[in-house]
Each structure stands twice: as structure tokens, then as C-alpha cells.
Write a structure and sequence with these properties.
The complex is a heterotetramer, with two copies of chain A and two copies of chain B. By secondary structure, chain A is of the alpha/beta class. Chain A has helices spanning 7-32, 47-54, 70-75, 80-87, 122-135, 153-164, 212-227, 261-266, 270-279, 285-308, and strands at 62-64, 111-113, 141-146, 169-175, 178-179, 182-183, 204-208, 233-238. In chain A, helix 1 (7-32) runs antiparallel to helix 9 (270-279), helix 1 (7-32) packs parallel to helix 10 (285-308) and helix 2 (47-54) packs parallel to helix 7 (212-227). Chain B is an alpha/beta fold. Chain B is 36% helix and 20% strand. The N and C termini of chain B lie far apart (41 Å). The relative contact order of chain B is 0.13. Classes of the chains: A alpha/beta, B alpha/beta. Chains B and D meet through helix 4, helix 6 and helix 10 of B and helix 4, helix 6 and helix 10 of D. The structure holds thiamine diphosphate (2 copies) and magnesium ion (MG) (2 copies). Residues 146-148, 176, 178-179 of chain C line the site of one magnesium ion.
């Protein structure tokens, strides 16, 4: 297979996807061992989306994330230790344990916030795009959200404003077919959610969300459009989540229409398939293994760091509400 | 009597009312095929079908508004909001619309709609999934506000809510769903506006809501050992409020503590204190007091979250202070 | 000119439009004389929209209305006296003076409510459509709203559900170009708002909102679609309001882009043009004049009724909050 | 000193802050070309241009959320909501997002955003355009809540709000916009959390907000003639609240009346009473009292609306009762 991308770039894409995968497998382990408070929504299976999109970005660009946000953080190079510590509710986490999995914020990586409100982050990311336009910088914003978030009013209001004002933003639908148990096809009438773009006069693109290079390509075009003042793009990435909605969801609803649904998507695993793909492109098993080892070490360090970190002091509950009170 | 989970008591109330009246229908996210995020409608989809037990898209303002339209045209919708925090996504439809239409129409129409939604912290669900929205609901006129304390109460009050011709906000406590309770074989509707003295006492009146009722009873049992006799009142409904029962009790005990899990500021404790003040002032032997959630966002880490939640211990301690 | 409609029907359309016109001229007079509390949003100039749409409806259909709702009420045959009394805050008004111009409700005419919240009535009308479907009646709902209301989230959420579930409803955009002072073309990126339909997989139709027969035709097609179980239609009626946003608005913003804007729309007055049109269709000046006299009498009766009606008793402020408390 | 309309004082504060700091921008419906529905931003569009004074579409949740995104990325947006009732359309963005982000991020970021919006009844605007949303705002943690009482206060407090690094809800009273006031030639920012004793007195403490401050002063003048000396405190900010000034005053006077136009239930009166209760209880010579908007929707007809609004007369009457 041919690609315009360098070997180094391909390896780095693989590294990121593999890191997401391994990181979240460890999150799931913590849950199973009863060491994780609350719940987490895993990105397993959707790795190519965040990886491909973020590959098209600059360091100072902005990301609006979701309840299923670990992948976005990893793709932006967030610190795995601080992430895992946050997920375990430790004082050393990104948000000092106040946010948890659903609210990890990493401002140093341009992550404006994960958000527990479906659709809640879309206008916020749009505001960051307005801010970039206002300040006259070269920055753009990316707003990630799920298929079902496209049915919230904030989706509509945000895209309309971005379209009217040519804001530098990319809207990325992570269409994994479900909002919890509800099949998006039962609550919406269009085959492709990208068609929503038609109502706003902006481009709407459908992309194979299991193919990291396809995603990157679509994102690059959208980023170029945004940076050159031509406004937003809506990209729909067709993807699938390996697990239930959250770590505790058996996901019985999936067998409802097609008993083979999960299996057929898993065959197209973005991590495994991309591994095969790059091995067919002058990259050696050894090079890949080296990356996997390094990732493994990084993940284990994060796990240990998180485990060994202390819980916050109860008095901390009363700080950080305001910057000054 | 029989044993039942709180969540199943909710489900039974829904089922019995739907059975009784085919104008009743249920809408919300994930209420149908999987029977609800907290499993409060298991089986109803199979029994009543897709039109009557409806999985909605994630469009809270939209489907609450649809509920209002149904209620105006002869149906009696029950709307589930997955977490009471999401009332804020639909706040305009609830407060500016559903709650005001009867009034704005000069009484031409009624809006018989129930919005059921879980409140409460304790699951490390963090700031956007842990709030208790009953004071918010009570602040605005036009909604009845129900805060059941256990499975029997939940079942009886939910039936009343569904039969009521007005918008009712029905708050289920999410830490209760998996709790087991004994309930009557047949649970009759429990009238709104009648508080329930669940434990008589003479030294102090504790008015509690939702899961704080049981906690208050436990506190009262502990206080008993110290020779303090606490009367515990299950408020049941915040709107309408049974002022009389509270006033009579405080006149007897001379002390009032309100325990409710909503944020403290402009909360239920403040309201009850202000509401009965004129009637009880000259009987008071100590300042009226309240326990609520302190005025900060709810944190994720259990190390931070648990200290913020009203507990049996906090109630015991507060009462002891009030008795000094 | 040819038309499939009977003389009687044409005259009745004219009667309704003329009634709207004269009724609201009297409302404006009350305002100018300082006899109207608060404000009112006049429908002057937009008469063909409500008239044409409602001509396609049955008596038991439902209407969701707006802050600019007088026209919808008149089109449905609401009692002018009770309307005017409501607008003046009198006890004899539709809502006993509790609602006022922005909240006239006439349930006996299927008017689910005027609504002071822009976009607020759209989901409510959608619920009425669901209710009709659930009860298995032949009823449909119409949701009227302005161009700018299409930028509220409720617009999006409602149409998505109606489209997904084939609800019997017609969404009617009264595009008068402005939301208060804001030109819809400055805050949205599509030439036709009817294009919004594309994102939901439903038909979107653009219609000349100054032409009552064109509106009726589009509404008939949409009603037919709705009643036969084929779901919603979005109809955009291009129209214009003669007055400012409300009775107290000088509307300076209109001269901003095109100093001839108002004049050119007024040339196409839906009432005057339709009058000319029917006079060219075997209807006589005398027949028209007779209708005008009858309307005038009805309007004057309403004015007198409203003027002479008492204000509500202050104690009434505390009733009707609940049906039972 | 010079004479100025309340609305122009708001406009001056915006202008001066925009002049001082180019990170400040203004967004809202009709704020630009026509200078605001209540004419509080006349001239700013011409002076600062389309990107900085922005007419938005009617998308309150959308543009409040955009404000948050701006605030997170180096700007200091001022958002106008045309009526405070519309906070409910954007409630999730205000309360679940803007107000919680600093906390949820563990203090990584601040959200320096001001939401300005009018409150108050008196214009026959009916149930959806007449509410006073300050108690609602104060109930939820994470926002500062400002209720200026006149033009000078509005100008000084708005400057402080814009310079504050946190979300601030700034409530302007719509019946004030056309009122004339004398203000200082140069108005400095007025610090938050410092109540203002606008009229000293010895018999009763009246804590008032917004346009009720002037009404309370008028009431005090009337009461004076009956030999009753009322101390009137302009609260200025509900969050943060200046408890100390209130407590000291009540300790002196022995009586407390709170006058605020929000709905009474779970309102500001209830809160202040509960908040200071412990500190003043043994000094009280009468029950703490409150005047607010009764718990019904606001009607259109002036015949119904005016009787519901807190007035000078109601305050006089209530104080007289409390002095008995
Ligand atoms: C406003 C709001 N409504 C409902 C929920 C509950 N909820 C959390 S995630 C989710 C499903 C989201 O689906 P989608 O947008 O497709 O994202 P996915 O989980 O599939 O990644 C729901 C309903 C919520 N968190 N916020
Ligand atoms: C939620 C909400 N936001 C803002 C307003 C204030 N407002 C009333 S009418 C109006 C303009 C509506 O424009 P459009 O939908 O085009 O209807 P039109 O007035 O042109 O008929 C606005 C902004 C409101 N009433 N409700
Ligand atoms: Mg999904
Ligand atoms: Mg318009």
C-alpha cells in the first residue's frame, strides 16, 4: 500500500492508538477490581477517530471532548499518569480528583474539557473557535461528540453560528451507532448524520472511522478549510465501541437487530488492522514491537503512579469553586 | 407485606397506572428496550409497545415539550429525565412552559404531566450527575414537587402524581434504587400535601425529605440513647407543603431542623424555616437549623464527595448542638 | 386567473385576511392611545400565511403559535372580543387577562398556545402530533414560528423527532427576514431556511408567503402527507411585517441594506393584492364590500366589548396556578 | 456629579471596560446595530465593530456556551440575555457548565464571563418576561450574583464583574433603565461582598436588593414619621454575601426584614434568614420576615400584576407589624 505519510508518522499513529487501547484496558481492569469510583465510558474500538483527527492539528489548537474522552486526551499527548490518577479520584489527577473520568480537563494540551452533558461541549468549542478568530491567531478548534449528541439543540445552535460566521472549527461525529441503548437509526431519519451539514450550508463528509489514515485525510482538509477562513466542516466517522456504554453496561441491546454486529465491527479493529497495514509498508515487526514495549512501560508507570497517589484531603472539596473566594 | 426493590416499586406504580388508564404513556432516554438507565421500567416496553413506552433521542427540551403537548391534548405522559441535573437542559420547557400554561391560559387547560428524575450524590458521578434539584423545582411556581422516602412512599406518591391534573416533578433518590423495602401488597395513592410523622418525639422536630428521612430516623435512634427525643417528619411533598403538621410539631418540641440534600443556599431548609417562622417563633428554644449539600459543586473522588453528603452523623451532631 | 377554489372559499379567505388586518389596526390604535398594557407583535403584512395554512386544516387540528399570534387565532375563527379583551388585560379575555397578547390560548379552536419564548411552542405542537398519532385520530398539528426561531435548539430537536417517527405535523416558518433587528441572513448561512429540512430527510418547501393560494396549496400537500402517515413537512413562507418587531419599535434597522425594502414588500400587500385578484375572478366589488362591512362590524363589536369589559379582580392573581390548589 | 440614565450607566461601564481591555467583548441578541433591546449598548457597535459587539442568532444555550469557550481561551466575554427568564433556555450552559468548569478542572482554568440580564415585573410582560432570577442563580454554586440598586452601583459593580475571573450573573432591573440618577464623574469598581448601609437606623434592619433598595429607603422615610427607625442595607451581591454587615445590624436593631423581588419560595429572604439565624437568634425581638414575589406566575393584566410586586406600602405595612 502507498501513502504520502512518512514511516515515522505511521509509527506515531500506531503508537497513539495502541496507547489508547492499552490505557483503557487498564482502566477497565481497575473497574473490575473495584478500584475505580463511579464509571467510565471507554473509547475502545474508536481509536482511529481521535488519532486521525488530532494528527491534523497543531499544538495550540483546541479540543472539545465528551464523556467518552480518554481517547482525545491520549491523542493530544496528555500525561497518562495524571489521567489515570484522575480516573481513580486521586489528588495527583489532572483535576485533583474533582472531575473524574467524565471531566478530565488538560488545558495544557488544549483540551477545553470532557463533558458529562451530552452536547454540552459543542458550543464551548465553538466559542474557542470564535476566540481564535477574534484574536487573529492561526488556531482552530475541534468539537468531538457522539452520534446521539447530534440530537441536542446545542449541536444545531453551534453549527449554525459557526457556519454563519465562518468560524475555524471542525465538528466530528463519532458515530458508534448508539446512544447508550438507543439505536441512532430509530431516533433520526437520515442514513448519514453528515447530511445535517446540508441545513447549514457547510460541507458534510462521511469517513470510515476505523481507518486512521482516512480520518486524518478528512481532518486535514477540514483543518485547511478552517485555517484559511472558509469555516466549519462536519465530519461523520463511522465507528463502533467494543464495550457497553460504560464499564458496567452488558450492552444486550446490540444483538437486537443483527447478532453479528459486534463481531463484524471487531474484525475491522482499527488498532490491529493498522498494525497489519503498516507491516505491509516497509515497517518491521521489530519496530512495532519496540513501540508496544515503550507504550506498555508508559502505561504501567501511569498505573503505578495512580495507584500509589494519595486521595485528596477532604478540605479540598471546598476549594477551586471560585478563583478567589 | 412483601419485599421489593425501590426501583421495582416505581415500575409497579407505572405499570398499574398504565394498566388502569390508557392515556398514560412513558417517554425518555433508554426507558424502553433496556427498561431504563436505573431499571425502573423493565418489562413495560414488552407489555405496552413502542408507541406507549418510547425511547427518545437525547433531546430533553424537545421531549419534555412534547410531553406538554400530549398533556394538553388528552394524554397523561410520564417523562423520565435520566438525571435530575438534566432538568437544566429542559428548564425552559419545564418552568416557562409546562408549569405556566394553566395559569397563562386563565385555567382553560391543565397539564397532567409527571417528570420523574433521580437526585442525589454518593455514586462518584461528579458535578453534572449528582445534584438534588428539588429546591430549584420548588422555587418556581406551577409544579408540584414530590420527594418520596422509600419504596412504599414512592409507589403511592407516584400513583397520585400520575392521577394529578398538574405538572408534577417526582424526585427519586438514585442511592435508593437498589434498596429493599417491605411494602403493602396493594399500595393506594398517597395524597399530596400531607406530611407523615414517621417517628414521634418531644425535644426536636426533624423535617426530612427523600433518603434523608430514613437517615433521620436512624439519627433519632442514636439520639434516643442520649436521652434526646426527636420527632421525624417525612415531608413527602415540598409543593404543596404541609405547614400545619410542621408547625404543630415545632410548637410541641421548640426546635426545628430541616434535612434535605439540595444545595443549602436558597434551599429547602431555608424555605421551611422562613415559612413557619411567624407561627413558631415564640415557641423556639433554639435557632432553626438546616442540613443540606454545602454550596460547592459535587466532586468526583469519594474522598471529597462523601464529606459533603448529609449523613446520620451530621444530623446527630447538629441536633446535639441544638439541644445545648 | 383560474383557480380550483370556489367563489365562496375565495371570499372566505379574503374575509379572514381582512379581519386580521382590521383587528390589528385596532390593536395598534389601542396602543397609540395608551390603552394597551405592555406590547403586542403585529401580524400586519403576514396575513396570507396563517390564512392559507389554516384553510388546509380541519376544525379539530392543533396549532402551536408564537408571540406574533393574533393572525393564527383569527384564521382559526377565534372570538375577536375575547381576543381584544385579553390584549387589554380584561377579565373577559380568553385567559382572563392573565396571558395578554403573547399568551392568548384558545383551546376551543385548537390553539395550544401563543408563546413568549421563541421556539418554545415547537416541541409542544410536536407533542400534540404525537398525541394524535397515539390516539389514532385523523388530526394533525401545525407549528408556526419565525425565521429566527429556527435557530433555537427546540426547532432542531422537534423536527428530528417528528421526522424519525413520522408524526402528523406541518412546520411553518414565517420568514419575515428579521428577528427583532437581526437580519436572519447575518446569522445563518443558507439562502432558504427550508433547506434545513435536508438534514432531517423530510420535504422542505419554499412558498410565496404573500400569496394566500400558494400557501394554501403547499399546506394542503403537507396536510395530506401528514394525515396519510408520511410525516412532517417544513414550509418556508417568505413574508414581511409592515410594522416594527412590536408596536413600539421604529424599525430603523430595515433601511440598513436596502432603503426600498419595506416599500417593495408593501406593494405586494397580501390583502390588497388578493382583493384585486378575486375582483378579476367573477367576484364583484359589491360582494367584497359586503364582507368588509361585516368584518368592520365584528371588529367594532370586539373593540367595544373589550373597552367596556372590567379588569379582573386582584384576587384572581392567585387562582389558576393549579387546577386544584 | 452628573445626571445619567441607568441604561446609560450600564453602557458607560461596558464602554470603559472595552476601552481598557481588548479581551472584553459583548454578545447577545440585538446588542449591536440597535444597541440592545433596552438600549444598554448604544454606540458600542459603531465604536468596536462587528466582531467585538456581536448580534447573535436566537440561540441562548449556544451563545452562552460560546462565551464559556471564549472565557477559557483568553477573552472576557459579556453576554446579554434579553430577559432573565431566558436563563432557563441556557440553564445547562450557565449552571452545569460555566459555573462548574473551574471546580471540575481542579482550578486549572477560570471562566471570566459576565451574563447581564434584566429582572423584574411592572411592564405587563406576563409570565415569561417578568421573573427575577437571582435566587435561582444563587441556589447553584459557582456564580457570583450581583443585584445593583441604581446607576452608580450598576456602573461600579459591572466594572468589577467584568474584571472578575469567575462567572458573574449581573441582574439589571428593567424598571430602572429609564430612571435618572446622579452619579460620580468617575465611577470606580465597587468590590463584591461588601453590603452598603444606605440609611442607618436602630429599630429594624431592612436588607434589600436591586430596585427594592430605593423602595426600602422610601419606606424608611415614611416609617420615620411614625417614629420607627429603619436601617436599610443594599446587599449589592448575593454571592458573595456580606453576612457580617447584616449580623451586626440585626444585633443592633433586633429585627430583620428582607425585601427581594424573586419568588418568595426558596428565595433570598428565606436564605438570608437561615444564614444569619445562628448569629442573631438571641437578639431577635420579632420573627425574621421577608417580602418577595408571591409563589404564582406573573400575570399580564396590570390589575393583577401590580398587586404582586413588592412595594413601598407593603414594606411599610410589614415593618409596622414587626414592630408590634
Ligand atoms: C444532556 C444529557 N442527556 C443525557 C445524558 C446521559 N447520557 C450519557 S452518554 C449518553 C449517550 C450518548 O450517546 P452518543 O452521543 O452517541 O455518544 P457515545 O456514548 O455513543 O459515545 C447519554 C444518553 C447526559 N449525560 N447528558
Ligand atoms: C428564548 C427567547 N429568546 C429571545 C426572545 C426575545 N424575542 C422575542 S421575539 C424575538 C424575535 C423572533 O424572531 P422570529 O422568530 O423571526 O419571529 P418574528 O418576530 O420575526 O415573527 C426575540 C429575539 C424570546 N422571546 N425568547
Ligand atoms: Mg454513540
Ligand atoms: Mg422574523
Amino acid at each position: 500500500m502507498e501513502t504520502k505519510y512518512s514511516k515515522k508518522h505511521l509509527l506515531s499513529l500506531y503508537e497513539i492508538m495502541y496507547k489508547m487501547r492499552r490505557f483503557e484496558e487498564e482502566v477497565f481492569e481497575f473497574y473490575k477490581k473495584g478500584m475505580m469510583p463511579g464509571l467510565a465510558h471507554l473509547y475502545l474500538g474508536e481509536e482511529a477517530v481521535a488519532t486521525g483527527v488530532c494528527a491534523a492539528l497543531n499544538e495550540d489548537d483546541y479540543i472539545g471532548s465528551t464523556h467518552r474522552g480518554h481517547g482525545h486526551l491520549v491523542a493530544r499527548g496528555a500525561d497518562l499518569g495524571k489521567m489515570m490518577a484522575e480516573i481513580l479520584g486521586k489528588a495527583t489527577g489532572y483535576s485533583k480528583g474533582k472531575g473524574g473520568s467524565m471531566h478530565i480537563m488538560a488545558m495544557d494540551k488544549g483540551i477545553l474539557g470532557a463533558n458529562g452533558i451530552v452536547g454540552g461541549e459543542i458550543p464551548i468549542a465553538t466559542g474557542a473557535a470564535y476566540s481564535a478568530q477574534y484574536r487573529g491567531t492561526d488556531q482552530i478548534a475541534v468539537s468531538f461528540f457522539g452520534d446521539s449528541a447530534t440530537n441536542e439543540g446545542t449541536f444545531h445552535e453551534s453549527i449554525n453560528m459557526a457556519a454563519a460566521w465562518n468560524l475555524p472549527i471542525i465538528y466530528v461525529i463519532e458515530n458508534n451507532l448508539y446512544g447508550i441503548s438507543v439505536d441512532i437509526r430509530d431516533v433520526t431519519n437520515t442514513a448519514n448524520l453528515a447530511d445535517r451539514a446540508l441545513g447549514y450550508g457547510i460541507p458534510g463528509v462521511v469517513v470510515d472511522g476505523m481507518d486512521v489514515l482516512a480520518v486524518q485525510k478528512a481532518a486535514e482538509e477540514a483543518a485547511e478549510r478552517a485555517r484559511s477562513g472558509n469555516g466549519p466542516t462536519l465530519i461523520e466517522c463511522k465507528t463502533y465501541r467494543w464495550q457497553g456504554h460504560h464499564v458496567g453496561d452488558p450492552a444486550v441491546y446490540r444483538e437486537r437487530k443483527d447478532s453479528n454486529e459486534k463481531a463484524s465491527w471487531m474484525e475491522r479493529c482499527p488498532v490491529a488492522c493498522f498494525r497489519d497495514q503498516i507491516l505491509s509498508m516497509k515497517i518491521t515487526e521489530k519496530e512495532v514491537a519496540k513501540i508496544e514495549e515503550a507504550v506498555e512501560a508508559e502505561v504501567q508507570t501511569a498505573v503505578t503512579f495512580a495507584e500509589e497517589s494519595p486521595y485528596p484531603d477532604p478540605a479540598e472539596a471546598y476549594t477551586d469553586l471560585f478563583s478567589d473566594l | 407485606m412483601r419485599e421489593i426493590l425501590y426501583r421495582d416499586a416505581i415500575c409497579e406504580a407505572l405499570d398499574e397506572e398504565m394498566e388502569r388508564d390508557d392515556r398514560v404513556l412513558l417517554l425518555g432516554e433508554d426507558v424502553a428496550f433496556i427498561g431504563g438507565n436505573f431499571k425502573t421500567s423493565v418489562g413495560l416496553y414488552d407489555k405496552y409497545g413502542d408507541l406507549r413506552v418510547k425511547d427518545t433521542p437525547i433531546s430533553e427540551a424537545g421531549f419534555v415539550g412534547m410531553g406538554t403537548g400530549m398533556a394538553l391534548t388528552g394524554l397523561r405522559p410520564v417523562i423520565e429525565l435520566m438525571f435530575s441535573d438534566f432538568m437544566l437542559v429542559a428548564a425552559d420547557q419545564i418552568i416557562n412552559n409546562a408549569a405556566k400554561i394553566t395559569y397563562m391560559s386563565g385555567g382553560q387547560v391543565t397539564v397532567p404531566m409527571v417528570i420523574r428524575t433521580p437526585i442525589g450524590a454518593g455514586r462518584s458521578s461528579a458535578a453534572q450527575h449528582s445534584q438534588s434539584m428539588q429546591a430549584f423545582a420548588a422555587h418556581f411556581p406551577g409544579m408540584k414537587v414530590v420527594v418520596p422516602s422509600n419504596a412504599q412512599e414512592a409507589k403511592g406518591l407516584l400513583k397520585t402524581a400520575i392521577r394529578d391534573d398538574n405538572p408534577v416533578l417526582f424526585f427519586e433518590h438514585k442511592m435508593e434504587y437498589s434498596n429493599k423495602y417491605m411494602i403493602d401488597d396493594v399500595v393506594e395513592p398517597i395524597p399530596f400535601g400531607m406530611a407523615n410523622i414517621v417517628r414521634p418525639g418531644t425535644d426536636i422536630t426533624i423535617v426530612a425529605t427523600s433518603s434523608q428521612v430514613l437517615k433521620s430516623v436512624k439519627a433519632a435512634e442514636i439520639l434516643e440513647k442520649d436521652g434526646i427525643s426527636a420527632e421525624v417528619i417525612d415531608l413527602r411533598t415540598i409543593v404543596p407543603m404541609d405547614r400545619e403538621t410542621i408547625i404543630q410539631s415545632v410548637k410541641k418540641t421548640g426546635r426545628l431542623l430541616v434535612v434535605d440534600e439540595a444545595y443549602e443556599r436558597c434551599g429547602i431548609g431555608a424555605e421551611i424555616g422562613a415559612d413557619v417562622m411567624d407561627d413558631v417563633f415564640y415557641y423556639l428554644e433554639a435557632p432553626i437549623a438546616r442540613i443540606g449539600t454545602p454550596n460547592v459543586s459535587l466532586p468526583f473522588s469519594p474522598a471529597l464527595e462523601f464529606p459533603l453528603i448529609p449523613t446520620v452523623e451530621k444530623t446527630v451532631e447538629k441536633v446535639k448542638k441544638m439541644m445545648k
